[in-house]
Amino acid sequence: MALSGKLIGYVEISKRGDVFHDLLRHNPHEMVAIVNDKVHACEVHEGERGEVGSVISWHFTHEGKKKITKQIIESVNEENHTIVFKVIGGELVDELYKSFKHTFHVEPKGDGQVATWTLEFERPNTSVPYPTSVLDYVCNIVKDLDAHNNAI
Description:
This protein is an alpha+beta fold. The chain has one domain (3-147): Alpha-D-Glucose-1,6-Bisphosphate, Chain A, domain 4. It is built from four helices and seven strands. The protein has helices at 17-26, 31-34, 91-96, 132-147; strands at 3-13, 39-46, 55-62, 65-77, 82-90, 99-109, 112-123. It starts with a strand and ends in a 5-residue tail after the last helix. The mean pLDDT is 91.
């Protein structure tokens, strides 16, 4: 029996939501220069960069190991700065989870804004852990991007 789950992480940011949205959607390759200790490459395999249906791969380091994930952009909403990625290859779906999707969006909060990562996944059994380290990882990338002075 598969077990569905959802984890949500919030990061208060100083930059506007459209800045992060545009970076993730249209210029993810620029993240390599900003967080090169975490993200090493971003390649488009099918479609156009940032378009729904495009297939991209990320080369990154997580938990001290170099990894690759292949994802399809499932949906985009410019108005609320949302982008949904469905993982279709790599360790997360090839070895750990039956399915894995992550959503990034930015919304106003008080005088600032908050970036939200939502991870939706299906574990094949209870021995597979919740992806809390993945959530920490993507939230830390947002913090690093927000802290970077000249990047975005």
